[in-house]
């Protein structure tokens, strides 16, 4: 075989993978790009649509957190209240999370008057819906795995796309950095796929790599491995348990006595009592938590108050566990306390969400999303406009040697990203059990 | 093909076995040294009778608290005995004696600090008999939730 026919054979093999992977991934990538573009502007969108819930008129002294808590509890009797968010500014409402029968509900309270402004089922929030589509296609863990798979295959698409596009006679600006408008429709269709692809590749790779660490399978395992190696997030921020109270539960006051009607002996009363929410607020102020922090209220006698803040900048993040009886700070993790991988992941998350550098960050990410949409749509159009009738238009299957080399490369990738490995298994099974046994399919897919 | 499917199945199954965060991973990150204290006093407390509150620091090694104070007051805030310094009676034990004129539900709160860790655990106790209102407050769990004082920092 001559060098040029060998090169052509490779080209066809890579093209085949790029085409099939692209066609399968395209609809999902489109959904991720559209929802991602919307989600980027979550702060601005929520500020507009929920301004009635968020904004309050500062008037005199704020009521104590306990008073606000009691008012919310009175409105939601027998409903666990699990979180309290004081609000980051004087004109911001306080929030409580009530676990109602319908699900987690955010209750907005005016901290000056104590009246309940309104409540929202968290799952019904517009951005929660967008996030659900973006993160799990609204179908739960299966959707999460599909999104993860799409992200992984996007890397394959970018690698194969770069190989296909890379000019054999050196890079030229036309057809790479800008489309050739006067070279005919065929060239223009190709350029409308390749040029935005060239521009968004680095950004898209960044979005994929920064998005993967929060995926349910690869991300969870990656985070655990990093945490166990001492280079990730400290335990309890992403994975792992929070510490427990240092006070023995038998020494805790038996409160509340609820249904009891007879006086209880002093031995049951005289126990340690939990801190109040405002005492926890004071601790938060003393240790310098970002004002957007949330307090998770312990639900068990040995639980802890967990204070967490995830503001716009990764460097301002904080997670703190406070003994609910003694007020002792059991753990206080800031960005500086993360391992090197944890820092990279945290920074990646805020960059991915577009909050790290504010509007400029959002606009750059928006441009990447729009570019991805263009690449996907033009890619499908490019294939459809060129494909012969009644055939997939895929180049012929490569020789056994080429195929094996490509499979080894993909399996290696599949080891790093196991879901890709699993999807390869599914493809191989489909090929073996169905495609190879159907002459029609073999011909349509050019898989002979 | 069969070998390929078998091989990739093995790789996928091995890699798909999820790993969890180990319990001792916490030692690889910044750790706090939270101060721990115990507060003990007699089970039966009568009005006018002197009561000794014993504050212990049950941790290994020397703990030299910067301060050990005890704040005593009624749970409803109507009577306060203020913040009083406890006396060191042994390396890890402090005590303070007080008496209470009125019956009622009280709170004793320790304020202590050592090695940068500040704590303020509190115990409630009954002196003599409680009024109906105090029992009602106790049953509603109001006393433990409502803050009596700000932490001592």
Offer a few descriptive terms:
heterodimer, A: 448 residues, alpha+beta, eight-stranded antiparallel beta sheet, 9 strands, B: 153 residues, Immunoglobulin-like, five-stranded antiparallel beta sheet, four-stranded antiparallel beta sheet
The residue fraction in helices of chain A comes out at 40-55%
| Strand order in space, largest sheet of chain A | 4-3-2-1-6-7-8-9
Give a short account of the largest sheet of chain A.
Answer: 8 strands, antiparallel
N-end to C-end Cα span of chain A = 20 Å
Write down the overall geometry of chain B: extended
Q: Rg of chain A, please?
A: 28 Å
**Fraction in beta strands of chain A:** 5-15%
* Number of distinct helices of chain A: 15
- Round the Cα radius of gyration of chain B to an integer and report it: 25 Å
Quaternary status of these chains? heterodimer
Counting DSSP E segments of at least 2 residues, the number of strands of chain B comes to 9
Helix residue percentage of chain B: 10-25%
Order of helices and strands of chain A: HHHHEEEEHHHHHEHEEEEHHHHH
Q: How many H/I helices of chain B?
A: 3
Low-pLDDT residue spans of chain A: 255-263
Name of the CATH architecture of chain B: Sandwich
Shape of chain A: elongated
Please tell me the total number of domains of chain B: 1
Q: What is the fold named in CATH at topology level of chain B? A: Immunoglobulin-like
Compute the separation of the termini of chain B in Å. 71 Å
Structure in words:
With 448 residues, chain A is of the alpha+beta class. Chain A is 51% helix and 11% strand. Among the domains of chain A are: 3-40 and 133-213 and 361-444, no CATH class; 234-337, no CATH class. Chain A contains 15 helices and nine strands. In chain A, strand 2 (94-100) and strand 3 (103-109) form a beta hairpin. The longest helix of chain A has 37 residues, at 3-39. The two termini of chain A are 20 Å apart. Chain B is an alpha+beta fold and 153 residues long. Chain B is 18% helix and 35% strand. Chain B has helices spanning 2-16, 132-140, 142-145, and strands at residues 38-40, 51-56, 67-74, 80-85, 87-90, 93-98, 104-114, 117-119, 122-127. In chain B, the strands form two sheets. In chain B, strands 3, 4, 7, 8 and 9 form a five-stranded antiparallel beta sheet that branches. A four-stranded antiparallel beta sheet of chain B has the order 1-2-6-5, with no helix packed on it. Classes of the chains: A alpha+beta (448), B alpha+beta (153). Chains A and B meet through helix 4, helix 8, helix 9, strand 5 and helix 10 of A and helix 1, strand 8, strand 9, helix 2 and helix 3 of B. Strand 5 (272-273) of chain A pairs antiparallel with strand 9 (122-127) of chain B.
